[in-house]
């Protein structure tokens, strides 16, 4: 059960792959937010999906009713929200495993500690420790917080192969296509319009095609960039999540804020440059790829200002994003493109 945002769902892939390995003959069911499950079904990470609508109590009740018509052996509750825990409580299952909390002690048959300093994919894999001795042994004895850091040039520390999502894209032929996702649900997570505009211009001058992508809500933002740089291609609002992932897989590089597209690119092992502003890597939501750069303003003491960011900068200056230059981001892009 993972009813959080799309990016969080992509960070669940290592756990889903491990479950598939542990239970090759069992049906894996994913409970997620509405319109987010198609990719996971197509890639056979799961066999069935139940989608719920946030804020719609009936959709949760209907999902529980349908789930209780199926014989369920084990529930893994990845999302720590009260609603997800209560939904787990209503599902009939022999075992229910979740993170330790006051409510969790009443809901789950087994609980594990929430490893706040670990990268989120490893936090999720830790949920398997009651039933998977291999995962328990692989994860025990390490703090893993070292994976939440970059080298001095911004390159993310490499992920151990046993925890990686995909094999290397050695067969990928350069297409000179770059996908840029300038949007985010949280306003303070967005890099500046001028930054994305300047970066697009510089990448085009270097011979790349630039595709501006995102959901329907980000179409206007992409069109603003396109108005200044008409050589760009606007795809925002034209592709489903599944289609977006398929397109990303054809690109040489993705540039994104700290949001879902960075994790979508990582799932395809497409190089990614992620811009971190109000959030920081020690929260655990790094791009889960060894082919990633993070550009951030490390001179500020006000970061992080929240787990998700805000709609307005609490200090009213937004220096975490406004002080990142297009030249800095371009250097990170070039580091990945020339590998």
Please explain how this structure is put together:
This protein is of the alpha/beta class. It folds into 2 domains: 6-144, Rossmann fold (3-Layer(aba) Sandwich), CATH 3.40.50.2000; 161-337, Glycogen Phosphorylase B (Rossmann fold, 3-Layer(aba) Sandwich). Helices cover 33% and strands 15% of the residues. The protein is built from 14 helices and 11 strands. The protein has helices spanning 6-10, 13-22, 38-42, 57-67, 82-90, 104-107, 120-125, 133-139, 193-205, 219-228, 241-248, 260-267, 319-322, 326-337; strands at residues 29-33, 48-52, 72-76, 93-99, 110-112, 177-181, 209-212, 233-234, 253-257, 272-276, 292-296. A 6-stranded parallel sheet has the order 8-7-6-9-10-11, with helices on both faces. Helix 9 crosses helix 10 (219-228) and helix 9 (193-205) crosses helix 14. The two termini are 38 Å apart. The mean pLDDT is 96.
């Amino acid at each position: 059960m993972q009813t959080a945002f799309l990016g969080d769902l992509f960070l669940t892939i290592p756990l889903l792959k491990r479950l598939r390995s542990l239970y090759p003959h069992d049906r894996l069911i994913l409970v997620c937010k509405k319109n987010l499950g198609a990719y996971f079904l197509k890639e056979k990470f799961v066999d069935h999906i139940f989608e719920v609508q946030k804020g719609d109590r009936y959709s949760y009740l209907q999902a529980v009713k349908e789930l209780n018509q199926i014989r369920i052996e084990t529930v893994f509750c990845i999302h720590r929200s009260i609603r997800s825990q209560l939904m787990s409580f209503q599902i009939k299952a022999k075992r229910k495993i979740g993170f330790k909390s006051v409510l969790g002690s009443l809901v789950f048959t087994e609980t594990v500690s929430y490893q706040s300093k670990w990268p989120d994919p490893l936090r999720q894999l830790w949920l398997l420790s009651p039933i998977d001795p291999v995962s328990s042994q692989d994860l025990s004895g390490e703090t893993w917080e070292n994976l939440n850091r970059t080298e001095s040039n911004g390159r993310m520390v490499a992920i151990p192969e046993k925890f990686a999502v995909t094999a290397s894209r050695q067969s990928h032929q350069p297409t000179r296509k770059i996908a840029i996702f300038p949007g985010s649900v949280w306003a303070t997570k967005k890099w500046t319009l001028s930054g994305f505009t300047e970066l697009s211009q510089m990448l085009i001058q270097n011979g790349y095609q630039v595709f501006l992508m995102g959901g329907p809500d980000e179409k206007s933002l992409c069109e603003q960039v396109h108005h200044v740089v008409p050589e760009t291609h606007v795809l925002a609002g034209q592709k489903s999540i599944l289609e977006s992932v398929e397109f990303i897989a054809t690109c040489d590089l993705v540039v994104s804020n700290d949001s879902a597209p960075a994790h979508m690119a990582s799932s395809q092992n497409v190089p990614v440059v992620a811009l971190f502003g109000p959030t920081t890597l020690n929260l655990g939501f790094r791009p889960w790829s060894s082919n990633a750069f993070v550009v951030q303003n490390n001179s500020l003491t006000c970061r992080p200002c929240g787990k998700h960011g805000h709609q307005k900068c609490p200090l009213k200056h937004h220096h975490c994003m406004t002080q990142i230059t297009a030249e800095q981001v371009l250097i990170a892009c070039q580091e990945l493109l020339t590998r």
